[in-house]
Amino acid sequence: MTVPAPILDWGDLPDGTLAPTLDTLVLLNRDLRPGTDLSKLSRFGDDCWDLNPAIFEDHMSSTVVNFTLLPTELRIAAKFYVWQLLNHVEARAFRRAGAGRIAVRTVANAFLNGMKFALEWFAEQGVTEFCQVTDTLLDDYLAALLDDEVPLERCYRRLTEIRRLWAHRHILPSTMRLPDSPPWGGADTRDLLDRPYTTRANRTRRIGEPTMQMLLVWAIRFVEDFAEDILSAHAEYLDVHSRFPDGKKAGERPWAHRHRRGELEPRVVAYLQELERRGEGLPGRRRDDGQLEIAWTHLSAILSCSFAFKKTATGRLVLESGLPISEHIYLDAPATGLLDGRPWRENRITYQEAPQFARLLSTACFIVVAYLSGARAGDVLNLRRGCVEHDQATGLWLMTGLYFKGTVDQDGNKIPEGQVRPDPWVIIEPVARAIAALERLHPHQLLFPAKIEPFRRRSKRSKRLGEARNDQRIAADLAAFTTWVNAECGRRGRTDQIPDDNRGRLTASRFRRTLAWFIRRRPRGLIAASIQYGHAHTQMLQGYAGDYDSGFPDEYAFEEWLYRLECLAEDNQQLAEGEHVSGPAADTYRHRVTEAGRQFAGHVLTSERQARDLVGNPLLQVHHGRGMTCVLNPTTAACQLRGTIDDPLVTPDTDDCRPKCPNLARTDRDIEYVKHQVAELKEIVSDLLAPPIRHERERHELARLQAILDAHERDVQ
């Protein structure tokens, strides 16, 4: 039975609103990926719209809108509305998202995460046209969300889609317009729900410190110690596989009869002798019944001969060699990498393992690049070969690539194809080495392709057009990497496993947030192994991050904000418990700590850019060092500041603290550190055998520190 096509009668359309027909292209007014087959584009009459041709980010998952998920009575109206969001020039991004045109993926996410639920609920109330929705019905909708105890994030999304529908009433026909008055009287969502929702703070969890350190340790081991073995084995794997042309039987290979008479036999004999010398068996495979058999197809590929040679006298040499049949097919590439001075592999990599190790190496490279570059996960996944160069003049390694977030044209609309980053990321050498390994691992233009081996094909059912790995695939790869490392540690009795941080699965987006935390909390500490980032403030904040449009300084500012509040909370508690403070900036210290406690207690941030602005607040300019506290005033600071005086992220160099700086204050906690220094110096000064120059220097430093202790004690009295 044929279902009759619906009759499309849109009624009175506002000026500028187009009336789509069943055959109208869904992406009529959107930029499309180069090479898009226009004949395969979705049409308005389709129930499932493929939006992938308008998605340029290679790492994005498939993006579709499936209208069969909606109630039948509201489906046509929903199609018209979504089509207008995609194609109408006045369909704008909503509320605080900016003034630009709504992005294609935002439309798809809005449909799935908010619109679908709202329309289902309306249909249950008997609504067949949007114009039937009343203010009273909207109040009931809000009450239903609250009664059902819908999670806060979903509540926000489901209310947002009602507001979005109302905000676009001017481009819709009268039958699709919500009431003239704003939903819920224009009240803010946080007031309606009586709970604020901060997306950034709730979504991205940093990776725990022990987990991140071990994850990076093993990733660097793969790149620096195991990569050569894996690259050689994978290249050999690809070479062997290339001898099995798709669609051809073994006997039909173009090279199958190249051997002259008597030429193959000595080749086979030499191969068998080499296996015997290595103590290895014939390449084999295990049948479904559990029995081992010789992998003749693989042998014919290695020997570049016809598959039929197994039935010849030369083939009988193999059968009569006396060599056992192995479950594995070892590649010729040697295993030379070391792990703690010992070979990391007892045997060479097998044919079956080569693609698995290639994937592990690619994942290790992702960890190194994503974490140590500070680039967004999506920007990393869209990197292409040739993206790294070494600036001989400055000695810096530079990484260039596309970025997508925040790329807008002069009208404020997103540039879907992204833009080449005007200021390259400044990276450190381990990142450059990881990228060099990726460029040798495969021939793809993208560094992180979904399929590493060129012969592996995309599923015919997949609508996704991007060739890069997506977030879900990277998460699975990170899990596989962790599993392999921990299994290897268990097998070897090692104690450097990658621990679970009990904060959810490892995802690509967590690296960037973790880097910001490490820079702020461990500015002089080890990242992993022997890599230090004492240069982090200069390279990671200015080079890795570039300007504020890149987003990374805001990530850092958020961590800086949290860290300073934690310190101020402790400072405030210590003052309340009677901690004494001395030094020229003691009064300023007490004022800032007390006022900051009053002003910021219970403060909620709604964006990282807000955090960046708040970090510049004078009340937060309290920086703890070793044996001193800097109550920063950039105009009078005696040290070399990190950043310019007017930079909101300017910080003092507490390792370059000058004794006569007017910004100094010393708490009882600082004095405890000074006392420890004094004790050490007294022991050195009492050594009569110490060189005179050193003795005099340490005696002078001891006198300076003792004066600090005396001044602190006098102030207490």
Distance between the termini: 98 Å
Helix proportion range: 40-55%
Specify the number of helices: 21
**Subunit arrangement of the protein:** single chain
Radius of gyration: 33 Å
Mean pLDDT: 81
Low-confidence sequence ranges? 247-257, 523-551, 604-609
Q: What spatial form do the alpha-carbon principal axes imply? A: flat
CATH fold name of the largest domain, please?
hpI Integrase, Chain A
Estimated structural class: alpha+beta
Overall structural domain count:
4
Percentage of residues in strands: 5-15%
| SS elements, strand count | 18
Can you tell me the CATH architecture of the largest domain?
Answer: Orthogonal Bundle
CATH class of the largest domain: Mainly Alpha
What can be said about the biggest beta sheet?
4 strands, antiparallel
**Strands ordered across the widest β-sheet:** 15-18-17-16
Question: How would you briefly describe this protein structure?
Answer:
This protein has about 725 residues and is of the alpha+beta class. Helices cover about 45% and strands about 5% of the residues. A 4-stranded antiparallel β-sheet has the order 15-18-17-16. Strands 4-3-5 form a 3-stranded mixed β-sheet. The protein has a 3-stranded antiparallel β-sheet with strand order 8-9-12.
